[in-house]
Amino acid sequence: MFIVDSGTKMTYSVPVFYSRRYNGPYYRWSYEQKLQGWRSVRVQAAELPHLILSVSPWKDVPGSLRNSLRAHYVE
After folding, report:
1. Which among 28, 32, 54, 71 is most buried, taking Cβ atoms within 10 Å?
2. What is the model's pTM?
3. By residue range, what is the domain housing residue 53?
4. 32: which strand partners?
5. What is the bridge-based pairing of β-strands 16-20 and 26-32?
6. Which residue, among 20, 14, 27, has the nearest Cα to 62 in the 3D structure?
7. Domains identified in the chain, total number
8. Residues 29 and 65 sit within 8 Å (Cβ to Cβ)
9. Is residue 72 within a helix (H) or strand (E), and if so which, with residue range?
10. With the CA atoms of 40, 69, 38 and 14 taken in that order, what torsion angle do they form, in degrees rounded to the nearest 10?
11. Cα–Cα distance between 55 and 58 in angstroms, integer?
12. Burial code of 20-31, b = ≥16 C-beta within 10 A, e = fewer?
């Protein structure tokens, strides 16, 4: 999923995913080449209205990101 900023019509060159569990906080996930892994940053809900978000089927999420999400949301 590529996130498009509707205000500027800019598409990010790196895949950016957002996650949220139940009514919890939002997290922005982007792949860091130097780290060779996914990095998450907590995002305030007020920052989201200018983005167009869409739901990605689990099978379309990169495998390495699925692993990072599983580790992040461990109960």
Report:
1. 28
2. 0.70
3. 4-72
4. 37
5. antiparallel
6. 14
7. 1
8. yes
9. helix 63-72
10. -90
11. 9
12. eeeeeebbbbeb
